[in-house]
Amino acid sequence: MTEILRYAAFTSSPRAGNPAGVVLDATGLGEDRMLAIAAEVGYSETAFLTPAGPRAYQARYFSPEIEVPFCGHATVATAVALAERDGPGELTFHTQAGEIRIQTTVDGDRQASAVLTSVPTRSEPAADADVDAALAALGWARADLDAALPPRVAYAGALHLVLAVRTRARLAALDYDFAALRDLMVARGWVTLQLAWRESPAVYRVRNPFPPGGIVEDPATGAAAAAFGGYLRDLGLAAPGAELTLHQGEDMGRPSLLRVGVRPDGRVDVAGQAVAISQ
């Protein structure tokens, strides 16, 4: 029988953060079974590991409806589960997006945390027609956008459209056309939208719709956080060595804290805690 663990990522409370399913040994499971397990779990993502060497694993990620090439919050959740089982240290996940290295630690209170290092990031300007279609689905206008943070499609293992708004109130009032946004995102290959408001040069409030996966919104999205760090680097707003704080999930009642580090090698670090959810 397949053991399924449940963890909340980017938080120290099981009632906050983003829940993830964790299967530490998926040996012998086919894609259909993994998708069925993810649907049964019902979280935005469930991670499935297959051993691939000492502290190395093949990692796959399934939402209730689709497989995605990389998922940050499920990576942090899974790494913490491994740290609690096998002890802290370095892990390697071989994903469809490429190799992800994770460093896990356990503090004096036995709270485990993980830092994942993304694949090389990139971003490019979003097409005007795509931005207009996304804004229409969101019920937003061009006037809502922050001119200093232009729309771009960012990548750190998966594609995310980044839209930044001028006010916190606009971000808080998220109520979108699920079908219209899902169809646009599927057509463009975007896994999520990274919606952001800049509180300060190093602090952002973000929200993350995920309709292609059958999820209205993620309360914490590590892959999008990594892509966002690369996006800010490409705009000259986060130099190598910069450390950013992303607050997510507050408007959903599941506050999450993501720490983002912009590396000089084109990759991005994303750090956070995770905690088991009692079943």
Beta fraction of the residues? 35-45%
- Global morphology: globular
| First-residue to last-residue Cα separation | 17 Å
Low-confidence sequence ranges: none
Estimate nothing, just give the exact number of structural domains. Answer: 2
Here the CATH topology of the largest domain equals Diaminopimelate Epimerase, Chain A, domain 1
> What is the CATH class of the largest domain?
Alpha Beta
**How much helicity do the residues have?**
10-25%
Main beta-sheet strand count, sense and barrel state: 8 strands, mixed, barrel
Strands across the major sheet, in which order?
Answer: 1-2-3-4-6-7-8-17
**Please, how many helices?**
6
Total strands: 17
Average of the residue pLDDT scores = 97
* Rg (CA only): 17 Å
CATH superfamily of the largest domain: Diaminopimelate Epimerase, Chain A, domain 1
Structural class: alpha+beta
Architecture of the largest domain, CATH level 2? Roll
What's the order of the H and E elements?
EEHEEEHEEEEHEEHHEEEHEEE
Describe the fold and architecture.
By secondary structure, the chain is α+β, with helices and mostly antiparallel strands. It has two domains: 5-117, Roll (Diaminopimelate Epimerase, Chain A, domain 1), CATH 3.10.310.10; 122-268, Roll (Diaminopimelate Epimerase, Chain A, domain 1). It has helices at 31-41, 72-86, 128-138, 168-172, 178-188, 222-234; strands at 5-9, 18-23, 45-53, 56-62, 67-68, 89-95, 98-106, 112-117, 122-125, 152-155, 159-165, 190-200, 203-210, 215-218, 243-248, 256-262, 268-276. It has an eight-stranded mixed beta barrel. The longest helix has 15 residues, at 72-86. It starts with a strand and ends with a strand.
